[in-house]
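Record type: monomer structure entry
Structure origin: computed from sequence
Chain ID: A
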Amino acid sequence: MRSLALLLMAGLTLHAQPPSQPAPVVKEKPAEPIPYKPAAIEPKDGKLTIPIVLHPNGVSRPYSRHYLTPQYPEMKPGNRVPTFMRAFMEQDVFFSKEQREKRDRWNLTALDDLPIEDIKKSGCIGGLAYRGSTDPSFVGRPLADVDEGARQLSSDWQIWFNIRDNGIWTLLPEVQKIRELAHVLKIRMRYEIRTGDFEKAIYSARTFHGLSSSFESHPTLIGLLVGLAIKTNSLDALEELIQQPGCPNLYWGFTELPAFGLDDRTSAGGERLLAYTMFKPFLEATDTMTESEIYKHLKLYDAAGAMSEGLNSKWKYSVDAPIRSTDKKKVAAARKLLVETGFNAKVVDKMSELQAIVTADVRQYEIVLDEMLITSALPFAEAMKRAEQVEQKIKGDNAQLAKLLTPTNRKITASLSRVRQRIGYLRTIEAIRLHAFEHNGQLPTTLSEITVPLALDPVTGKPFQYSMKDGVATLTGGNPSDIPNNASTNRVYEIRIKK
């Protein structure tokens, strides 16, 4: 059910009107591969070791000067989503494939090797970059629109009606488009970090939060995952920021930042709405459905199931359900489940064998979906354990629709936990930097020496693991992965102080 929507997002584009004036981006020949060293660190020996060099610095007062979320004095009424979409208007060249690929390469480049002059010429800095610019080259404002939208008070995607009407075939082109804005914003923020303009970098971090948190109101798990990807982009840049000499200490900024990353309750509600829309004819039936009516919906479920990964392509629900409807024991069990879960017994008795089997499968899907989605409200270890139990449950013969359509919630739980843990790591690292500032550049021997409140590891529910050896501190936690022994998510920070 998820993969078709992802294809729709990736494949659809919004066609803006031709630009009424030239964009400040000079179209060049296709760029050669950039020779700069990559910023990415590869996992090794079962872990992802990340070297961190800190320059001690204290916090500034008032603390809110360096908060990482938009603050109410700078916010105003309005809907973020159309403001974000306005960023694309009359900017066909700026958002062209050539420019997008160039920006993608820059974002994979180590901070010290960023091509500063090329970035300035690209339009990511200057007239396009900030609100209220007086730059004479100003002819548009895509990033200024992102800044403005991130500081508006509401996020209405206006697709609830579409989901009720179209179900899983609802188109989501705006989701992927807005994700593209995060890549441009990351270039701007990394440029600000590289050039030492920390106040603007913090301003961009606030914009990042407004952009990512807009997806909290998106009623799909796809929207939630895109919001988490944008949040991860911002945390990558913030990890670079706090290592720069002279950067103000952002401990209270990370403390004020919502520790849960993104709220997933709306996306969970949207998934339930998708299920209700798809299965409404069976859930609301008050009489016997004809065989032709039933088969019409079974074919739709076949189409939905074809989008799921890892299934036998020859398996068809429209074949399986009728076969099971000939088994008297399975039909009796189906009728029993329906009555036990709230269906009127007289209505259930009137159902044909096939209708009873399909309706019971629908009800079982609702039960499994609830059990799966509620896991994100639990601590990581318990959530993963219960999600695995649910996955085992749907392997049985009485949960065919659940087997076909249930989202892979363990991956979603892991994605949420990775973002939450990154926030906890960065808050702890800034607490360590603050301690070093207050103790003549010395790292704490243990975390208990730190006087400000410390974040717990959301994966284990316990303090992060910390040790010192030969002047190098090691900070690590649980592994927020749905895959056993996943080295790429097993982060280990090696922290050094540079006075």
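Annotation 1: The chain has two domains: 2-264+436-497, 286-407.
Annotation 2: The beta strands are 48-54, 76-79, 152-154, 465-469, 472-476, 491-497.
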